[in-house]
């Protein structure tokens, strides 16, 4: 799995090259606008909720002594909760909404790398199908991810070993980010259920792709603008290599990537 994680990370360098070579940036104009608007909306909502959550946690403390310290700590905890949930909600909402725009990008990368596209889709019906699948997949991943993050977040406050659980939270978020990116390619090959099984089997690729996705997303302002173009192309490259390993062997590599 470690090897696959590094493969998922390294694909980002190849993704930047392909974005320029295939002139794919134009496909991301609408998704980038959606990403920016969604990011701003969630940021304002998160900012408003952080104090409310902090006050709610502080009110649980029923004693007068230490109230000020508890309130300060509660607001910090509230802020962390909002940031974590905000990123999760932003990530899955964005991936679901832009599904119809990402599938054509994945198809163009596949055609360049393999010479043809497996089950090429086009038209309103294909876009509607992609959107429906994106909503279903990301709603499922959102719920499962939150169920994982809640106990890990609680354990993260354990002295000394808490940092381990913070790292695990990051990996969980990375996995589901990579999961969503991989499905833009997998939707042409597998049913919803089979795609879930494929990603579980190749979770290292999802984690590697998601690690860079999450790190880019943390870059102020710029992150939400460039994260989609790079992550979608990178995930397409690594996913196709797993689907068609024979075409990416050293002696039969279809392209320089």
TrEMBL record:
GO terms for molecular function: high-affinity sulfate:proton symporter activity. This is Coproporphyrinogen III oxidase. Its main location: membrane. It holds the Pfam family EI24. GO terms for cellular component: plasma membrane. One of its GO terms (biological process) is cysteine biosynthetic process. Keywords: Amino-acid biosynthesis, Cell inner membrane, Cell membrane, Membrane, Sulfate transport, Transmembrane, Transmembrane helix, Transport. InterPro entries: CysZ-like (IPR050480), CysZ/EI24 (IPR059112). It is found in: Membrane. The chain crosses the membrane at residues 24-49, 69-90, 146-176, 211-240. It is a multi-pass membrane protein. It comes from the Bacteria.
